[in-house]
Amino acid sequence: MGEAAAFFVDHLVNGQHTNGFGEDRDTTVQIGDRSYVIDGSHEGNPLFLGVQIHDKTTNKWSIPTVLGTGPKPCKGYSAIVLKQGRILVIKKGSASDDSIWFLEVDSPFVREQRKLLGREVVAWSKGVRGNAEKPIVISGPSGVGKGTLITMLMKEFPSMFGFSVSHTTRSPRCMEKNGVHYHFTDKTVMEKEINDGKFLEFASVHGNLYGTSIESVEVVTDSGKRCILDIDVQGARSVKASSLDAVFIFVCPPSMKELEDRLRARGTETEEQIQKRLRNAEAEIKAGKSSGIFEHILYNDNLEECYKNLKNLLGINDDAPVNGVEVEGINLPKEHTVTKKEDKIMIQETGEATKNDMIVLDLSSINGGAPGRTRGIVLDTVKSS
Ligand SMILES: Nc1nc2c(ncn2[C@@H]2O[C@H](COP(=O)(O)OP(=O)(O)O)[C@@H](O)[C@H]2O)c(=O)[nH]1
Ligand SMILES: Nc1ncnc2c1ncn2[C@@H]1O[C@H](COP(=O)(O)OP(=O)(O)O)[C@@H](O)[C@H]1O
């Protein structure tokens, strides 16, 4: 069965439900036997939109786990059911960079998370105009020179690349700054956030927990830069399996002896930690070369040469354009009607201030999705003749 056939809009109303939320800011969307009520607060927190589900067959209300960062509440919303278990939520009277949101209630991601967490799940994704270049995943054993190569790239092309700042439970080294090199965090806090679905991937590496939050990748991409992730092979495997379409690069040392010398010369680890990293390095190099995850293997013998090879494979030359798409803002009217025709959503202003211009939201080339961002949205104003 095609996924789209399972969903249809029964009605699209504001404030017509009986669950006791009682706010006229609520919006109800019905899909099959279920009503999704998008409410002005999340678990009593007025800063987040809440979601409740009413099942007609059992006449029961439930509060799902909400993954991803959702929109902040505003005066009102329009909602419309899309295919693949997504609800398009349009914030009324807001700027285009904050007006288009997707609530996934039965998308492939949500179904997988529902199975994984064993409970009802919905997930938010923010609609973003334009597309972004593929993120770059760089892996390799400790001491091979990943950090050095990434620093060189970001220094030479500061407006082109941004670093995804990982979370880790390891202690900071003396030159490392919280929020710049890592988000240094407590294990229980990080485990809770992983359980809340805030991480794209995570892994236990050299006895500590490391992970990439969805937000850390999206913050870089939102700024129009190409995101670089320095993560281990397990993390790269998880990213490869996720919806994030990335370029995967593995960095190898010229020899184990050279790797050991570099680790010692760096002087950031104790002897015990160096031994642990060297033991793990053999397995990492084997996995990196044979797992089929990495489409590029770089040998970091001579640093300048390796850096040149890295730039070549990323297709960078000196006059490469800055990434990101500049788009002019469009404000969505406070009072409007929404109609849907295939992949196009027509937003028509209503009320006294009507200028008769219609805003057309084209969803035909959207990509990505919850949790995080749905990109590739085209938003245009169509003047009335
Ligand atoms: N899976 C995963 N691995 C990470 C992440 N951040 C860093 N790592 C990896 O953890 C390992 C240890 O990193 P670190 O403690 O900074 O030591 P270094 O590699 O010797 O500089 C390296 O292989 C990193 O690539 C992350 O967010 N996720
Ligand atoms: N090609 C190279 N030749 C010699 N030393 C290198 C080379 N690349 C990196 N280094 C040095 O090796 C050490 C480890 O590099 P680093 O970038 O911290 O590795 P990683 O981030 O992979 O753990 C650093 O002291 C760095 O200056």
Automatic annotation (TrEMBL):
Catalytic activity: GMP + ATP = GDP + ADP
Organism phylogeny: Eukaryota, Viridiplantae, Streptophyta, Embryophyta, Tracheophyta
Domain Guanylate kinase-like: 133-315
Protein family (similarity comment): Belongs to the guanylate kinase family.
Coiled-coil ranges from the UniProt annotation: 264-291
Full protein name: Guanylate kinase 1
Entry EC no(s): 2.7.4.8
Protein source organism: Brassica campestris
An example Gene Ontology CC term for this record: cytosol
